[in-house]
């Protein structure tokens, strides 16, 4: 019986595979095999013993059904795996898991999952950067209304809007890359972090083990890898999800018919907008991004709480992490892919943007305020003149410039909103140049 929507609705198969039950078992077996080889390297077990364990530490010999059967009997998943690996490894089996505690295996296996997923996450962010780069470059002169509090404010460009998003995504990429060295971390220091079982050899074994697995080692473990690392991982993921929700919300807002400035991709030949309102073109992908982003962020509190354990460790983090780590990883990849699709196929209605700008004379309020200041008025005095004039326009109609001239008795040069986008183009170009450097770095 399938219950989770991850199993039938959300997520890429290749990413879900990283966190699947079978992959988790294979990662643990990979750690056991690497541990045996590290112990052989320092002379604790023979090379032949390590090779025999390595030979059998895979799903061909360690059947997941048998592991689950034994776990049902003994109530311990890692020990169940150890028992099966021991039984299939012949005489060498008596050295399986030597000097290890369960979390030496599971936390190091987690690190291997993180290591694999980070490559997908970084690739997703780079692809999103590329799409936003193109939109920003193509629309750096596309004038539109800037809005604050949901109200018309001042003219901006659509390229500026999306380049701000691009800048945000580049920061996320930097956070992900920086966090990787702190998150992809394993351990082999036994039950309370002292490595007492194998004595002085333990630290050397841990270094060899982690080096061979291509991951970092925990500097100060307890029974587990310190969970501030997992909190950081979840926090970085939640931060990305928040940005994606923001981007998708903007698409939804700008797609409203009364604005009509953008539209997410819609297959006009086949896609159905509503089961009853056949005319509907709904921003369903953007809405889906928003919905799933909230699920991702919802795991942030339990992740923080899972870092608060008694003494050197208890089990209160175990069950929650089985949900948190796979879910946030699979879902962030899913919504990043959807966000890329939305932006890649986004219809930018520059004509509607221009029409909305030209139809609102009041967005020149600040421009006329500065014109008055340049004509000798104090800033506060000019502000009040423009405020009163704009209220007159709202009540009685007419043009803002005419109202200002009537109040001041002075002629004012007619201004255009198309000429009042400030440094929008320059800011956009600066961000585009920064992105070019980021993309060049990731091509090498």
Question: How would you describe this protein?
Answer:
The chain folds into three domains: 13-98, Fumarase/aspartase (N-terminal domain) (Fumarase C, Chain B, domain 1); 100-354, Fumarase/aspartase (Central domain) (Fumarase C, Chain A, domain 2), CATH 1.20.200; 360-444. The protein is built from 17 helices and six strands. The chain has helices at 13-18, 21-41, 47-56, 64-74, 77-88, 102-138, 158-183, 201-213, 228-254, 284-298, 300-305, 318-344, 350-358, 365-374, 379-396, 400-408, 424-441, and strands at residues 143-148, 151-157, 185-186, 216-217, 262-263, 347-348. The strands form three sheets. Strands 1-2 form a two-stranded antiparallel ribbon. The protein has a two-stranded parallel ribbon with strand order 3-4. A two-stranded antiparallel ribbon has the order 5-6. Helix 8 (201-213) links the parallel strand 3 and strand 4 (216-217). The two termini are 45 Å apart.
